[in-house]
Write a structure and sequence with these properties.
Rossmann fold, eight-stranded mixed beta sheet, globular
């Protein structure tokens, strides 16, 4: 999938369809292919799906933090001249979506978060495996999902490769620390954009009470649950995820 990346200036991204842009923000250990279900569904429904490659491993180390990644998303939206964007983020991507919405509310018409960090400090400490042997990393990857079979050898190999690459590891740690510092609890009540919260009932990384707190604090939010589902609902139950999100978008005339 990543072979189909377009490049425009400093930005690398996938883009498919025409219509209102849905900009997808991937997680810390998540690849662009995690959103294949969304990428294949929403262009058929009149949306433009855009997945930028986040500069997690390419920013200078001292600038590797979620505020600078949010600024990167702002620059990307402006450079591509997207209007009234919908941000959709999983895990760290949800956190970046929240912070981008807080900092640049005029750019964002709606927000979708699933398994998002931003409230639960342990989320970033638990959501990426530290260095270790292959079996340890395999178990950590499987724990992200309700069905451990979703953690294919390809996914485990990619995580193993990342955590054993010193350059990637130190940037992963820098991002995780920055995410913990950027707790959003005081900001959420002031964020009025329509927000769709889709959460796995068996999420071990950001447990269900985190979703409930997001829903409680975000004044214009709706919360939807997916059963038998872990931290990455759009991967584990793509059809149900898409149906919930599409109906929500229709209900909000987005």
């Amino acid at each position: 999938m990543e072979n189909g990346l377009e490049q425009d200036g400093k930005f690398k991204f996938l883009e498919k369809g025409e219509g209102t842009p849905i900009i997808i923000l991937h997680g810390l250990m998540g690849g662009l292919s995690n959103f294949d279900g969304v990428l294949n569904f929403f262009p058929e429904k009149g949306y433009k799906v855009v997945i930028p490659e986040l500069p997690i491993y390419t920013l200078p180390l001292l600038k590797t933090n979620i505020k600078n990644i949010s600024n990167y998303i702002r620059d990307f939206i402006n450079h591509r001249d997207y209007k009234n964007v919908i941000l959709l983020g999983n895990s760290l991507g949800g956190h970046i979506g929240l912070l981008t919405t807080k900092l640049y509310p005029d750019l964002v018409s709606a927000l979708v978060i699933t398994g998002s960090s931003g409230l639960y400090e342990s989320a970033m400490g638990e959501s990426y495996p530290k260095r270790g042997d292959y079996d340890y990393i395999k178990k950590k990857a499987e724990n992200v999902f309700y069905d451990p079979a979703i953690a294919t050898k390809e996914i485990v190999d990619e995580v193993y490769k990342s955590v054993n690459d010193r350059n990637k590891l130190i940037r992963t740690l820098a991002i995780a620390k920055s995410a913990i510092r950027h707790n959003m609890s005081k900001d959420l009540p002031n964020m009025g954009q329509p927000t769709c919260i889709i959460w796995g009932k068996q999420d071990n990384v950001t447990p269900p009470n985190v979703a409930e707190e997001f829903h409680e604090k975000l004044p214009n939010s709706n919360l939807f649950w997916i059963d038998k589902c872990g931290h990455a609902a759009m991967m584990e139950h793509p059809n149900q995820f898409n149906d919930i999100l599409f109906q929500w978008l229709q209900d909000h005339n987005l």
